Amino acid sequence: MNTGVEFGVAFFDSTNTKDGGGWYSMNGERAMRFNGFSDLDARHVWITNLAMSDFYEQGLSKAAHLRNSSFFHQTLQHISNDCGFQQGSSIPLVVEQLSGIAARVMEISKLCMPGLRILKSLHDSIYDFIGLDDIKDDAACMYQPEFQAAFQENSYVAGIYWPRGIGTARLSMNRVDFAEEVLGYPFPIGAWHYERSNMSVDDFINLDVPAIACVEVDLKSANKPELLAFGAQMSGTAVMREWITQPEAAMLKMADAKIRISNILRGSAINDSVELPSLLTGDALIRSSYSAGLVAENYLHALTSKRYDKRTRNSRNTYFFPSRAVYLKAVDRMLSYSLARQMSDRDHIVSMYGFGAINILVTEDLFAEAVKDAADMGFAIVSSKFKQE
């Protein structure tokens, strides 16, 4: 169903929107100046370069026609970096390119999912379109502390020294391929029950039903323990990790970490897999499209993210952790770790990984070597402040 709403991109000159305007563009057309957010046509939806915190600080959270920078999960800054724009690039050109991408993402999304209504962020809109209601339907509601302790959103390799002249290169796999690989793994459905067990890690990994295990993890004997980033988040803060899934157990075993199991929470059934919309996977040109990749990543994010729980608005725990999301996020972490380890084995310093992408630290003189190694490993996109020759 076509809602008639068009999406554009608006770049504010400053996060303090009261101080002035910026540039806007629709459908990749020539960027134009605006003097303030009130100049932006309220009949359209504008994806901005503002963070959610900026919305609240500037009193814009009630502005129905404005969206924050992470509307596509990847921020507009990440997307512009992927497109080869760097610090100092012409803002009007950046805005024109981003608005063209936004238009194609919307077009592909609606072709893939007829009837999709994009009113929230793209991944939240896809979640609603699929018809999921985890808070109501997921039997994991009985065991939220355990599933929360098994969930890790991203993997930040802490304790890295950043000397002068170091920059970050972000290496990304083809997003359609990666989303298809993650969603090809089975995930849990149905009831769960406790079972006291000190089974071996191999027995746990090879169970014929999904399960999560209460564990003690000893990283001292592991190969490159910092790369496992067990419990380390991108913000630099740690999350308590007392439970793990079978995919993450396989990842830890691969790194020779010591794992002792004391309890397991055993599932009753699995869903074989989820398929991406056929339009994304059935044509080689669309599969290689950057805009189609963003649609695929948002589809994956819809199925692997924690959900805001309005019922707990006055509670400290405001999120619900679906068993499917916990399990598939662990698959994402396992597959992304494998990529990170391969780059680490080539003597690159990995600082973060997840969603089929890794960040490595490079100097300008070593950037060309990093690009070559990334190409050898099949990474589709390399973005950095350093220019590729």
From TrEMBL:
Record's protein name: Uncharacterized protein
